[in-house]
TrEMBL record:
UniProt keywords, alphabetically: Membrane, Transmembrane, Transmembrane helix
GO cellular component, one term: endoplasmic reticulum membrane
Gene Ontology MF term list: unfolded protein binding
Polar residues composition-biased segments: 1-12
InterPro entries: Chs7
Renumbered residue ranges of the record's region Disordered: 1-31
Species name: Neurospora tetrasperma (strain FGSC 2508 / ATCC MYA-4615 / P0657)
GO BP annotations listed: protein folding
Protein name: Uncharacterized protein
TM region positions: 69-90, 96-117, 129-151, 173-197, 209-228, 240-260
C-alpha cells in the first residue's frame, strides 16, 4: 500500500503471508472476512451502476455524460480492488497486471472528476463529442502512461525501474507521484472549483453540505488506509486491513458527491403523461 513517507510503498508482513496462502495451488478456503470483502466490492459496483442509470434520467442536467464517465471509471476501480486488495487467489503476474490497471484508473478517474468541476463552468458545451473526447482522451493518456510504468516495474520489461527494488526497498518516486500525490491534487482542485461554483456563482450554501460530507467521508477512508490499517491488519492476523474500510468510505463519498452534483444541476425527470396507461 502507499505510505506517508515520500516515494515509499509498504506491504505488511501479514498481508504478504495472506497473499502467499491464497496463491494458486495453495490451500484456500473462503473466510467470513473474504465474504464481507466481496460483498462490499460487489455492492460498490452495483451502487455506481445505479447512480449512472439515475444520471441518465436527468436529461437536462449539466455534465450528465461527464458524470457517467466518472462513475464508469470508479466501477473499474472497484472491480480491480477485488483482485488487488481483495485477497482473490491469483498468481503474481496477473496480480501485477490488475494492480497496474488499478493504479492507472485511480489517477485517470480523479482527473476526470476534476474536469467534471470545470464542466460546471460551461467553458464548453457539456455532453458534446468535443467535451467527452477531451476528457476521455486526456484521461487515457494518464491511464496508459501510469499503467505502463507499473507494468514495467512489476514485470521488469526494460529494467529501467529495477532500482525501486534496491535499498531503500519499495521506493518508487514516479509511481508515488502518479498514484499518491497527483490524485490528491486533482481532488483538492475539484473541491475548490466546486466550492467556488456553488458559493460565488450559484449563490447557494446547502449543496456545500453534501460536498463537505463527501470530503469528510473520503478523508475518513484515507485515515483507515494510511493510519489505522496497520493496527487492524496486525490485530486480525492479516484477515482484514484498512483498505476494506477505505473502499466503504470511498463508496459513501462517491454517493454523496453524486447527491451534490444532482442538487446543483437542473432536473428534468421524465414523467409518464396522463391517460397513457392501458
Amino acid at each position: 500500500m502507499g505510505s506517508t513517507q515520500f516515494g515509499n510503498f509498504h506491504v505488511s508482513s501479514q498481508r504478504r503471508r495472506r497473499w502467499a496462502q491464497k496463491a494458486p495451488g495453495s490451500p484456500f478456503r473462503n473466510t467470513d472476512s473474504d465474504s464481507w470483502r466481496l460483498h462490499i466490492y460487489r455492492t460498490s459496483v452495483e451502487i455506481r451502476l445505479f447512480l449512472s442509470a439515475m444520471s441518465e434520467r436527468k436529461r437536462a442536467a449539466v455534465g450528465r455524460r461527464e458524470m457517467q464517465v466518472f462513475l464508469l471509471g470508479y466501477i473499474v476501480i472497484s472491480i480491480c480492488e477485488i483482485f488487488t486488495v481483495g485477497d482473490f487467489p491469483l498468481n503474481s503476474t496477473v496480480r501485477i497486471a490488475f494492480t497496474a490497471i488499478h493504479i492507472g484508473f485511480i489517477i485517470a478517474t480523479t482527473w476526470i472528476l476534476m474536469l467534471n468541476a470545470i464542466v460546471g463552468y460551461q467553458l464548453l458545451d457539456d455532453g458534446t463529442l468535443l467535451s467527452l473526447a477531451l476528457i476521455v482522451g486526456s484521461a487515457a493518456i494518464l491511464l496508459v502512461g501510469t499503467g505502463y510504468i507499473a507494468l514495467d516495474t512489476g514485470l521488469h520489461w526494460t529494467g529501467y525501474w529495477d532500482s525501486s527494488y534496491e535499498l531503500p526497498k519499495n521506493r518508487h518516486i514516479a509511481l508515488y507521484v502518479l498514484y499518491q500525490l497527483a490524485p490528491l491534487v486533482f481532488l483538492v482542485a475539484y473541491f475548490v472549483l466546486e466550492a467556488i461554483l456553488v458559493i460565488k456563482i450559484l449563490g447557494e450554501t446547502r449543496p456545500m453540505l453534501y460536498l463537505a460530507s463527501a470530503a469528510i467521508l473520503f478523508a475518513a477512508g484515507q485515515v483507515f488506509n494510511y493510519v489505522v490499517s496497520k493496527y487492524i491488519c496486525d490485530g486480525t492476523s492479516g484477515k482484514i486491513d484498512g483498505a476494506l474500510f477505505e473502499t466503504l468510505f470511498t463508496l459513501l463519498a462517491v454517493v454523496m458527491n453524486w447527491v451534490f452534483w444532482s442538487s446543483i444541476t437542473e432536473d428534468d425527470w421524465p414523467t409518464v403523461p396522463p391517460n397513457q396507461f392501458p
